[in-house]
From TrEMBL:
Chief site of localization: cytoplasm
UniProt entry keywords in alphabetical sequence: Allosteric enzyme, Cytoplasm, NAD, Oxidoreductase, Phosphoprotein
Official protein name in the record: L-lactate dehydrogenase
Location relative to the cell: Cytoplasm
Organism: Cellulomonas avistercoris
One GO MF term: L-lactate dehydrogenase (NAD+) activity
Amino acid sequence: MVEEIEGDEFALSTPPSVPRRTSKLGIVGAGAVGSTMAYAALMRGAARTVALLDVNRAKVEAEVLDLSHGIQFMSMAEVIGSDDVSVMADCDVVMFTAGAKQKPGQSRLDLAEATISLVRKVLPGIVEVAPHAVYVMVTNPVDVVTYAALKISGLPPSQLFGSGTVLDSSRLRYLIARHTGVAVQNVHAYVAGEHGDTELPLWSSATIGSVPILDWAGADGAGALTREVRDGIAREVVESAYRIIEGKGATNYAIALAGSRIIEAVLKDERRILPVSSLLDDYLGMSDVCLSVPSIIGASGVMDRLEVPMSSDEILGMRRSAEAVRSVARRFGF
Ligand SMILES: NC(=O)c1ccc[n+]([C@@H]2O[C@H](COP(=O)([O-])OP(=O)(O)OC[C@H]3O[C@@H](n4cnc5c(N)ncnc54)[C@H](O)[C@@H]3O)[C@@H](O)[C@H]2O)c1
């Protein structure tokens, strides 16, 4: 800082010692998803402080050390971690990835029950130390968990939402790009509805460049997205998580990058359009259910949901998805 001494002479003055506010990312669960998400966020320089919380103390301390040893090669940041909730104090954004893994013989519903009781045990304490954070649920079944977390925490629906179909949409875009031979970054297409078996690609509004996907002919018709091709791609999007889990036991890289994209949208108030799972209020006549629709994400969380034009089949698909999510939530008293 420069200040005028006399006439046109200038000298350096001491900067005021006002503490500067820096961004803090909290990640609950330092497992495959949580620790890779920390790595992705650090690599992208998303936050100045990354805090990990996990019941497994040895694991969280090891992840903190390993990540910290790589900081020299990234944007400057600090990584902290603990099994004590105070590590989450004053976070700006909290990604909730803690959850039981499906064990042999355990159904998806059993998993939902275990996860909801984990959220009930852990979330209120975090909200107490980080009341202003934006909360993003990642743990599965994410739509049901998000709905339960809203009820448990009492947070407004703009401040707590789920990662939803951000990952599924990137899988969809990858498959469309591979089929048509164009860059994935030029494919604009969303998967909406449940993050799960009833999810659906919104083909009628999807584009490549500015060409509607339904009109895309490709070179000599080779890359055309016929009904058969579209159905095959939609099936592959749903099945890809099962395939990855079968091969390596967990999905971590793409969900970590998808999560990092959400983190940056919040921390930098980017107002990006992302298909997150939030509490719908008269969206296509649907209310009181958490489902993914393209939404505007900024510093305060979900700022708005887009009224995407949908075909009658897509509207029916959304309603089917809402029913599937609702029926699981009701089984657990939500
Ligand atoms: N929404 C998505 O798109 C998406 C994608 C991939 C995975 N997931 C989900 O993310 C979750 C995590 O998957 P993972 O592969 O990282 O599992 P993981 O078992 O590797 O990690 C879970 C971590 O949670 C921790 N944990 C358990 N109870 C805790 C508690 N009370 N407090 C703090 N930490 C606790 C465990 O110690 C473990 O380290 C699963 O539910 C998975 O289905 C969601």
